[in-house]
Design goal:
It is found in: Plastid, Chloroplast. The protein is mostly helical and 501 residues long. It has 17 helices and 7 strands. The protein has one domain: Ribonucleotide Reductase, subunit A, CATH 1.10.620.20.
Length: 501
């Protein structure tokens, strides 16, 4: 998979270059739009909050001594620990990142309380906006609590290191590219709530009955994801109403935020040993590898919001800048898709080496990430014997997975069955030493019989004319092509060419 770290950026201490643009949203006429929306917020946003009596609590999802008694609580904790023992380390690291995001809750209402009109000026205002901020914060507070308690009970985490990370993140805060504009902040929160719901939902799926088998953790993550979906619906509705009220301002605000990328709130994550963009990128790469949050998810969220807010259909009320913003946004998913494809192609065409990354949250147990190894230019150029779509033997070696035996990239092992994108079946494959009488079929429907790789040079018999013997014509199979000893044996009318690997 391509890495979502494509979207990582360093913490900025300088003034954003678009400051004047978002400040234009603080003029009275823009703020009046928000004031007029308060009755609508009362009727359409506040109902998405649950009452305290109807809400779940962390003790509902974890062993509770009040309900189980001392012996029952002890037995339930042992059962929880046994199930947690099967969760892979990669998912544990992603769980910490999710939990730290939730535990940094004090930062998030402080962002909303900076917004004109929306903010809770006294801490107990009775406006619909203020009651939403407090109610949303109260529901979010349970998320970090339940994940934190699970992690304590599981015994699989160095909780002091995790707690230090939480404190660092709350202390360091988060960067908002337009910190006082409700239009811009609501774009961010709508996107982020959906991203968080996806991350928790993917975690529930990966650790559940069809994954690691931890039913308790799957239930916790699924419950948190359900809350996040309600919160996403609230902010998506709210931003949708702003698109109706002032489409030009809304589409320009969305384009402004997407040009600067939507980073996770943990972009400043710091475990006390490492900090900065590289540290964040490392954990984004782990999430990509584990499948809890990926670049594809980022693109799908953008596509969803563009559809929800009808960005492509906007017509009346757009200025020149608004139309340019609309064009940019509508083209952006395709650009991200192309980035995914290029990253995937790069992954195939480059050598990778495993790098062990010790993670303090799990007692310095290492996580394996693949890092690129430079490839000699002569390997990357396209020789005449490449497949018709430009892929070479190097691509084939990097893409095939082996079933029924092993594959040694240095010497090769005979007798394996190799399956590729469309299936590769046949005899033995010996990479970097030779392909002897094998049949390779699949990625482009190519069948090769005969031929040999010796040392660092490739010998392939090729039919020079229709007379005399067979040979190999790419795209179909011919028989009679053979190499013997240190020299290539050719039938009359045939010729042999060689190419450096």
């Amino acid at each position: 998979m391509p890495s979502a770290s494509t979207f990582v950026q360093e913490k900025k201490s300088v003034v954003d270059d678009g400051k004047e643009e978002w400040r234009s949203y603080l003029v009275p006429e823009k703020l009046e739009v928000l004031r007029q929306l308060e009755p609508w917020v009362e009727d359409h946003v506040l109902p998405l909050l649950k009452t305290v009596e109807a809400s779940w609590q962390p003790s509902d999802l974890l062993p509770d001594p009040a309900a189980l008694g001392a012996d029952g609580f002890h037995a339930a904790c042992l059962e929880l620990r046994a199930a947690a023992a099967g969760v892979p380390d990669e998912l544990l690291v992603c769980l910490v990142a999710n939990m730290v995001t939730e535990e940094a809750l004090p930062t998030y209402p402080s962002v909303l309380n900076r917004l004109e009109v929306v903010r809770d000026a006294t801490g107990a205002d009775d406006t619909a906006w203020a009651r939403w901020i407090r109610g949303w914060s109260a529901e979010e507070n349970r998320h970090g609590d339940v994940l934190n308690r699970y992690m304590h009970l599981s015994g699989r985490f160095d909780m002091r290191e995790v707690e230090r990370t939480v404190q660092h993140l709350i202390r360091d805060g988060m960067s908002m590219h337009a910190p006082a504009s409700p239009f811009h902040v609501f774009v961010y929160v709508a996107f982020q709530e959906r991203a968080t719901a996806i991350a928790h939902g993917n975690m529930a799926r990966l650790v559940g009955a069809r994954g690691a088998g931890d039913a308790a953790l799957a239930r916790i993550c699924g419950t948190v994801a359900s809350d996040e979906k309600r919160h996403e619906a609230a902010y998506t509705r709210l931003m949708g109403k702003l698109f109706e009220a002032d489409p030009d301002a809304a589409v320009r605000a969305m384009a402004y935020m997407m040009r600067r990328r939507i980073d996770m709130p943990t972009a400043f994550i710091n475990d006390g040993r490492h900090s900065g963009g590289d540290f964040y990128a490392r954990f984004i790469a782990i999430a990509e590898k584990a499948g809890t949050y990926t670049l594809s998810d980022y693109r799908c969220i953008l596509e969803h919001l563009l559809q929800q807010w009808g960005v492509e259909e906007l017509n009346a009320g757009l200025s020149g800048d608004g139309r340019r913003a609309q064009d940019y946004l509508c083209a952006l998913p395709h650009k991200i898709k192309r980035m995914e494809e290029k990253a995937h192609d790069r992954m195939i065409r480059t050598h990778k080496k495993p790098t062990l990354i010790p993670i303090c949250w799990i007692f310095d147990r290492p996580i394996t990430l693949l890092t690129e190894v430079p490839v000699p230019p002569q390997v990357l150029r396209r020789p005449r014997w490449c497949f018709s779509d430009g892929r070479s033997i190097m691509d084939l070696r990097s893409r095939l997975c082996v079933h029924g035996g092993g594959m040694d990239g240095a010497a090769g092992i005979h007798g394996v069955v190799v399956e590729g994108d469309h299936g590769v079946h046949g005899g033995g494959v010996e990479l970097a030493v030779g392909i002897h009488g094998s049949v390779v079929e699949g990625i482009v429907g190519l069948v090769v019989q005969g031929g040999e790789v010796r040392g660092s040079r490739v010998f392939v018999a090729e039919e020079a004319s229709s007379s005399g013997g067979g040979g190999v014509v790419f795209g179909e199979a011919r028989s009679g092509c053979a190499t013997t000893g240190d020299v290539s044996h050719r039938r009359k009318g045939d010729r042999t060419r060689e190419r450096n690997l």
